[in-house]
Amino acid sequence: MTRRKPMTISDILTSPTVVDLITAARALGIGRTAAYRLAQDGDFPCPVITVGGVYRVPTAGLARLLGIDPADLAASTTLPPARPSDSDRARRARRTNRRRQ
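Given the sequence above, the corresponding structure tokens read:
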């Protein structure tokens, strides 16, 4: 298992409007399993929304929790396009494989 580098303030400022739970957990230094458990129990430290059974975290709420002014998010001009997370790609691949069987 590879450890991902911690997120920087710059990473957060250039994140899409909504990030996956694992990205938010990485920013907070929370492990994957703990993040999902906290989200399921409604105890994740910032707002979490569920979209089609997938947890998403608004970047503004994450930034607020970390003491980053959400206005800085709006001022950031180089927002990358949203990309599906690794877990989203794996989930889609499993669904496709099930349909083929």
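The chain is about 50% helix and 10% strand. Try to locate this feature in the token string yourself.
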